[in-house]
Every structure is written in structure tokens, then in C-alpha cells.
Amino acid sequence: MTEVDFYKPFDTVNRPCPDVPEPSKDILERDVLFGKDGTINLPALQDHLVREGRLAIPDITEICNRAAAIFRTEPNVVEIGDEVRVAGDLHASYYDFVKLLEVGGDPATSQYLFLGDYVDRGFFGCELLIHMLALKVSYPKTWWMLRGNHESRQLVEHFNFKRECLYKYSIDVLNAFLSVFDTMPIGALIGERRFFCVHAGISPQLKKLDAVATVNRFRDVPESGLMADLLWSDPLPADAEGKDTIAFTDNTARNCSYFYGATAVRTFLRTNSLVALVRGHECKDQGFEMQFPRSGQNPFPTVITLFSCPNYVDSFKNQAALLIVKKEKIHFRQFTASPHPYFLPNFIDVFQFSLPYVAENLTSMLLEMLKYCSSDDNTASTGSLAERRGDILAKIQSVGRLSRMFQTLREENEAVVALKGFCDGQLQKGLLLGGRDAIQTALSSFQKAMDLDKENLKRPNAEGKKPDISDEHTVGSLRRRKK
Amino acid sequence: MGNELSISEDEMSDLMNSTSFSQEEIKRMYRKFCHLDHDRNGVLSVDEFKLIPTIASNPLLPRLIGIFDTNHDECVDFDEFITGLSVFGSDSTDEKKLKLLFDVYDVDGDGFISNGELFYVLKMMTGANMSDAAIQQLVDRTILDTDTSGDGHISFEDFSLSMKNRKVLFETVVGQMSVSNKV
């Protein structure tokens, strides 16, 4: 694309970047999606979703219902074979999930286990869930999905998955997904009780593993208790005081649940004859981290954290990892981020993004123009001073006030774009006032991205609840497609 | 009355009919217009707009001139000048303000916001802060979501409907563009 002089006429009609693929206009045909025997055409589905194509809402609910029916038959802790690929948080990064399948191999022949957090933060949670649930329907005994803390009503509302569903589909689709979340198992055992897999970690209420089986999981993620801890807790940070002696302490990073120390993990593993705890829930620079190694001859880690969303929220520059378990042996496969189509924060469109800027600039230019020509306008003027003051400039004074308001709106837009990944949580005001350089510096390292994202780790409380999403729901429903 | 004023009575009554301004206001604005019209040829050129230091480098100046220049002759005559200003006047309507905002994006004035127009107007504003590919993806999706007839561009009806479906944006951008202090 060549530079354009905006004062001269230019090609107004054609797409300026013909090499960028256009999003699909079509809804996937039902008879392409489903075979006569009800099987799902996975290659066609993936091809369609990659092009941002949509499905008919009844077809989504059908996939949800069929997956939920399978989940419902599964125990709270599923037991799976000792050859499996395990992945941590995915967070709506569909294009990285496609890459993950390339790295891990065809799900038709490879067993997979996912540790939850499929939605929020990224922009392709619908595509990811539809594809993953279709895989569950297709391979119910080798495709395993656990529930994460983001698979809850509270978090999808606080973060951006609800908004995504409303933009791309409707509240019915969100509700269909939420119903599936309520059926997902919460733990997995790999092999002969070797690895206990869960989204977040252990709980002071968890002595014997059997306790998990007695939990009623068919509900939203509770505020506290065993199920909440399994989906919210964290290992004590490496720099925490007393990390070798403390068993459990309040989890200040999450505003709920617990930190667990090495002693608590050792006790739990010993009691239940397990080798290690495998969990997700935390972004890691390398995509994985091994913590609390055993002392002595067998330094095997007791906690393995997995994170499978590379360049988390397009900002962390972290790698993603897949844990490959093959009988007694484990290793990690790392992968980096794949390009994905660009979305503005909260799925706003070009008009919502640019109109405040347009209005601000037009009005301020008008003001400046009229000011400029009144600077020596007194000689020819008739009437009193008061009348002169009441001229056209005064008449558009409210334009000036308006202009300041637009400026704020526009600056907010710019801020959220600069800090796009963090926009759905709390923004650090001080940093924004520091301007572009401060933002760039702040994002320059993984550790700094972690610091910036701290607020988003916390469980939102009632006071921190965001206002309702207002009327933008209808935007997506305007989309029409030609059959 | 200044002796340089040269608006005929017919022109004056036309302007008073088509805008919300009084005779006195139109005369005052004519003086302002003449003040901007350095070469006294009766129209404001792009270069004459650029002589106003505080707006010369505004990235949207081409579109400000564009919305005044309704006959697309790349300059602004007094009729166009005062008609454009009247959209911000107290007797203006939401419809007129919406149309003005639509015209910011409808660069060639064919009544539709096409792919290239939406792309370049967004690019004017974002400069180097957003990649061309990202702009193209946003533009493609916005057209797909807003164009109800499926013909690949956005009509004024599509644009109005989209704005009216978004009360917060609509009220912020259009609703408050009214000027109420005609004191």
C-alpha cells in the first residue's frame, strides 16, 4: 500500500489491503457441519472458524447440549490413561489453539487434557469453545476438559466473554456455554494415580482425594470451600516468607482462597500416593514452571504449572507449553504466538472507536477557525460590546465544552488500545498519565506485564462490579449474510 | 454596515432560510469568511485553511474541508461555509448532525461509506499507531456488521440505524452537539 495524500482524491471503494483475508460472511451450513449420522465435520468447522465464520445458533446449542450430556456422565475426577498431552489456560486465543493441535498431533489419535480457562481476556472464546466442545462430542474418551475459574458467571461478566457472546451471537449462546461449564469435571488423574490435575491447586479441606468426589459440581463456581479452592488457589510464590514451613495462608493475589506451601503439597501427595500436582491458572514466561522439588535422590517437582496461551493478552511475550506425558516420562513442548485478526477492546467497531475523536477534532477546529478570524474583527463590528461578545463564537461555546469531553473519551480509547490486553480489568491511571513511553517501558518485560496485570488476577468483589454492558448488545445482531 | 459586504438580498434571504442564523450573524460570518479568504477570490482553498496555525496540522483537517465542500470542487464558498456551520447551530437537528458525521467518512460523497473510505479515515486518525492489516480487519468487520443490504458498503440509513442502536454513543456524539445558549 502506498502513502496517500488525504487532500487529493484516492481510491475510496476498494479494500486497500487485498492480501489481508476477508472475514467470512456466511453461516456454516448445517448439512456441512453435521454428517447424516450426527458426526461433526471437524476440518470444515475449523476452516470456517479460522475465517471468523459464524454458526447458526441452534447448531451451537446442539453442540453444547451433546457435550454437556457427556460431561454429565463423567465423575468429578476423571481417570485417564498414561499417554496424554496436557494444556493449561487458553483464554480465548483460538489461533494459538489451532497451533497447539499442530504441535500436539491429531486429536483423532492423541489423547488431550485441558485444565480450564478457555474464555475471557482474548477475543476468540466462542470459536475456541465451539471447536473444543465439538472435539469432546467427537472423541469423548480421549478429549478431556476440566473447569477453570473463568468458566463461571461472575468472571465472564467481569471480563470480556459475555460481551463477546453478545457481539458475535446472543445471550442464548452465552447461557448455553454457561450450562456446559456447570457440567465440566474439576479434576483428573493420569495413569496409575501418578498426577493429580486440576485448574488451580489443593485446599485445606482436601486430605483424601475421595473428598473431591463428594462435591456437588453441577452449579456455578462457589465463593469458598473445596470446589472454589480447586479452581482458585496458588502455590506460595518463590519469594514468599516461610514458603518451606507454611502449609496454607490467605491468597492475597486472588482476594480469595489460599496459597499452598511445599509442606501442604508433600502431605497431600503422600496421603494419596501421587507423584505431582499438575495445574494451570498462572501465566509463566516459559509456558511452564516446576516448583517445590523433592529433596534428595529424586528431585522431581511436586507442582507443575502449565500455561498454554502464548503472548498472553497480546502483551506478555511468554511462550506456551504443552506437557507430554508418556508412561513414566514427561517433557514439555513449547510454542510461540500465532497471528490473529485484530479486535479493538470490548469488540467496539470503527465508528465507536473513531466518532469521539472525529467529533472532538471537528469541533475544536471550528472553534479555532472562528477564534482566528475574530482576533481583529472589532473594527467592522456594529452594536455594543455585549452584542459582539454574543457573536457566533459565544454561540458555539458549548462546542468547546463538548470538545473537552470528547478529548476524554478519545484519550480513554487510546489508552485502552495501548494497553489493550489489560483493558478488561483495572487500568493503572498513573501509568497512563506517563504517556506512551511509560506504557512501552512498562510492557517491555514479562515481569512488568505481570505487575501491570496484577489487578486482573483477583476475584472481583461486589463493590468492584462493573456497570451493565448497556445497549451495545444489538450491534452484532445487525450482521446480515448472503446465503 | 461594512462597505466590503457583498451579499445580495436574495442570497441573504436564502441563507437565512436554509440556516438558523440571523441577518446580523450571517454578515458577521461573512466578515470572518473574507478574513480567511486571503486572495479574495470568494472561496477558501486548502492552503487558506492551512494558514490557520492551530488547525494546520490536525489530521482531520482534510475531512473538515471535505464536509464543508459539498460540491467537491476542493474549495469552500460562503454558501458551503455557512451551511456547514449551521449544523452546529441551535436549530440544527440530530438528523443533520448524523449526516455531517456520515459525510466525514463518505469522502467521495457518493452516499455510501465504502471500504477504502473507512480505511483511510481511520488511518488519518491512527497514523502509525495501528498496522494497515489491523485497520483492514476492523474496517471489513465494521462494514459486515453495519451494512444491512449486504452490498459491501454503508448507506446513510445503515449508519443511522447503527447509531440509534447505540444510545450511549449516539447521545454522546450527536445528542450533545446541540447549542442551547442562544442568549
TrEMBL record, chain A:
Keywords: Hydrolase. InterPro entries: Calcineurin-like_PHP (IPR004843), Metallo-depent_PP-like (IPR029052), PP2B (IPR043360), Ser/Thr-sp_prot-phosphatase (IPR006186). Residues 454-483 are annotated as: Disordered. Its EC number is 3.1.3.16. Residues 454-474 have a biased composition (Basic and acidic residues). Residues 146-151 form the Serine/threonine specific protein phosphatases domain. GO terms for molecular function: protein serine/threonine phosphatase activity. Belongs to the PPP phosphatase family. This is Serine/threonine-protein phosphatase. The lineage of its organism: Eukaryota, Metamonada, Preaxostyla, Oxymonadida, Blattamonas.
Automatic annotation (TrEMBL), chain B:
InterPro entries: EF-hand-dom_pair, EF_Hand_1_Ca_BS, EF_hand_dom. The keyword Repeat applies. Signal peptide: none annotated. SMART domains: EFh (SM00054). This is Calcineurin subunit B. Residues 24-59, 68-91, 93-128, 134-169 form the EF-hand domain. Pfam families: EF-hand_7 (PF13499). It comes from Blattamonas nauphoetae. PANTHER family: PROTEIN PHOSPATASE 3 REGULATORY SUBUNIT B ALPHA ISOFORM TYPE 1. Keywords: Calcium, Metal-binding, Repeat. The keyword Heme does not apply. Coiled coil: none annotated. It comes from the Eukaryota.
